[in-house]
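User: Some background: our group keeps a shared notebook of sequences we're curious about, and every so often someone picks one and asks for a predicted structure to add to the entry. Today it's my turn. The entry only has the sequence so far, pasted here. Could you supply the structure so I can complete it?
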Amino acid sequence: MADRILNIVVVGDGAVGKTCLLHAYTDKSFKHFYQPTIYDKESIEMILDGQRYTIQLHDTAGQEEYDKIRQQFYKRADCFLLCYSIDNSVSYENAATKWVQEIKTDPPIPIVLLGTKLDTRRGGSKEVSTSEGEKLSRAINANSFVECSAKAGTNVELAIEEGVRACLMGVPEPQPDDRCCPINCCTQS
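Assistant: Of course. Here's the predicted structure to add to the notebook entry:
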């Protein structure tokens, strides 16, 4: 049987770790410097749950000046990996208020919510807690929620695997009590 090609588009604010996550997954490397990505695509082969897939990982720019370029790739998306940085509560708020609105499609596309830079969690007041991430995940009807760290290699494979599973599963049915957004933003219809 031919491989099924799945397009996973990674979105979120600039500097939240999208590119580092993809490098940690595809070539097991970590980039110690920030270089904004306008757009990059990496094709990989994956066997998940006994099935072979061709995954196209689309890395997009988070900066406003690239809105139109970035949105061209949404039409081909089978899943979005929506990223915020655990050490940056503004990126979390933007995930809820800006990014969920931007990636709304008709019909809806599955979303996996990723809290990146898990290795930076120190318990500070500007950090995003696991429970806040879980609450946002429910509010936006995400397929799943993963906290990960490209630098430490924590849950990197799980993040991409959850993206593949979301592509295959489709958008889940919303749970009745899960529509209360933690920052009064969003809900995906």
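Suggested note for the entry: The beta strands are 4-12, 39-48, 51-60, 79-85, 111-116, 144-147. The chain has five helices and six strands.
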